[in-house]
Amino acid sequence: MSAPHEIIARYEKVFSRVQRTSYAPIIAVRGRNSKVFDISGKSYIDFTSSAAVTNLGYCDPEIVKVIREQAEELIHFTFIYGYNIPALHLAEELLTLTGFKDWRVVLGLSGSDANEGALMLAKGFRKNSNVLVSYLGSFHGCCVGTTTVSGVDLSVRVAEIVSPWLKSVKVPYPYCYRCPLGLSPKSCRMSCVDRVKTLIDKVGPENVVALITEPVQGDGGIVVPPENYFTQLENILRKHGIPMIVDEVQTGLGRTGRWFGYQHFGFRPDVITLGKPLGSGLPISAILGREDIMNSLPDFAYSFTLAGNPLIARVALRTIQLIKERDLVRRAEKLGETVLSRLRRLRDECSIVGDVRGKGLMIGLELVKDKESRVRGFEEAKKVVWRAYELGLFVMFLSGNVLRIQPPLTIEEDVLEEGLNILERSIKDVEEGRVGDDVLAKVRGW
Questions:
Q1: pTM of the entire predicted model
Q2: Which SS3 state, helix, strand or coil, does residue 19 take?
Q3: Which percentage of the chain shows pLDDT scores above 70?
Q4: What is the distance between the alpha carbons of residues 289 and 105, in angstroms, rounded to a whole number?
Q5: pLDDT at site 185
Q6: Which residue of 8, 107, 351, 415 is 20 to 30 Å from 156, comparing CA positions?
Q7: CA dihedral 186, 344, 368, 214 (to 10 degrees)
Q8: Residue 168, helix vs strand vs coil
Q9: Closest CA to 262 of 307, 337, 334, 211
Q10: Residues 6 or more apart from 109 whose CB is under 8 A from it?
């Protein structure tokens, strides 16, 4: 096999830069639960779950078994023109998880297309509205108006509904450590909710298609909102009949210590999107929502040939079943409390750790130049990631300076402790000047 630097050079020759960034030169060839192995045989503890995907860890034997069984029976039969049983069983199970009556399901291939579809369906539901409300720091995917540029008759008819609405207004997310309004959480009286109300009043409630949000903001830095933020927001939206789309692509299926992240905050969404961990590494997504929203576009208006693929649908169903059977939602909550407690002690000891926050095993550790100024520690984050890589831990950062700690829900407790030991050593090595500036060019990230 080629040397690592040769493989990386070949990557640079064939892949567009628009699709990739890098944190560490790990060339993975094998994975087992919470560890991944590179071409030299070295193992790394994965604190990222490969971008919050492998909630069950790498190559869970039960998932591998289901893949083999289904591959021998039926790999593909499109459910957009016909029927297959695994897609049906998956959709029924997803609706059971929500507990809501009169909801419907749309299956897709990625979190991006799930969010794209949710926005289109919301527009179909509120046809005369044209403004989407979202949040600064949010990330909902990479699809942009593909229906608008398509020319088949059905797409043209759908575009007449959706194309004029491509207007988005953004409000500050309740990021209390760095309050965008410059206020103190102890005395702000939830001014961030008032900001949303003011914006809706300004554009006119009748003009708002929907509000889309993450229950815990992911790529914006693992930002946890105040406990009563969403219930107050829900009251405003309900008053005007504005749908709330909840992006659970990263938070869903047990990651936060609940089946869905929104369940921490006591409100009811109108639409939920799922992706990432649903297929245990295979490409699948889902939109779940109220029937009147989910059927608001013309029949057959949002379909993908490979959606509802029987092999992937069966894997997704088994993924949900295993999370239930192994009580992994509760395990994520319990382990998350342990990790948060330890990292908060580290925060108290280290001058470059500004904040630690999270729910379950979705945890952010924010690095700063110093605690007093709270200047973002961009260089510090790169150095910590590189030092951790050298010591056998794969960890990433978000928003430039927030370490993303999202190990598999199945991670062994001794491996979790080992990973935390490496992380702590890496942070202290950076704080004490043991990691040089030469590594900064080796880590790109985002």
A1: 0.94
A2: coil
A3: 94
A4: 7
A5: 82
A6: 107
A7: -60
A8: strand
A9: 211
A10: 283, 284, 285, 304, 306, 307
